[in-house]
Design goal:
Blueprint: H1 6-11, H2 13-32, H3 36-61, H4 67-93, H5 113-134, H6 141-164
Helix pairs in contact: 2-4, 3-4, 3-5, 5-6
Length: 176
Amino acid sequence: MAFRSRRWLLGSGAAIAIVGIPMLDEFADAAAKANPEDLAMLNSAIELERAGIKAYDDAADTRLLSPRVLDVALGFRNDHVAHRDALSAAVKAGGAYLSTNTASIAYPPLHSQADILRFALAIEKQAASTYLSVIPDLADRRLAQVAAAILGVETTHVSKLADALGAHAYPQGFVV
């Protein structure tokens, strides 16, 4: 295992809590050898994760969610924080500029818990679709494996949100 600085460990706290040091360390090692295109894709994913975090924060601020739904939403938010932190550590390990942008998401009117759940479902489906689309484009297969691991979490979010709305997560049987 490569030596990581105290700053790297502190800056990757949420990701370490979710995936542990060995997986995050392997991810950072892969990123350190990544080509600029792979690092640019990771930066785009960071921007998407930030948008997800913001959307869940905004949803929590509405006070429209029941305590149980709020707990689940904040759990999903924490997953996005872990993804952002892992991706950020990887971009830094690769020596690339870390984007500070947040992907732009159009918000529909949010007047009820159901509105928020539908909005969250749309965001999570977009995140899953995005990760699915970048996996074959990542030159480093270890980075592709990490994207696939994140894809699995995003599709779990989709499934839980769809279930809460009484809908089928992927009626076609495929992530699209």
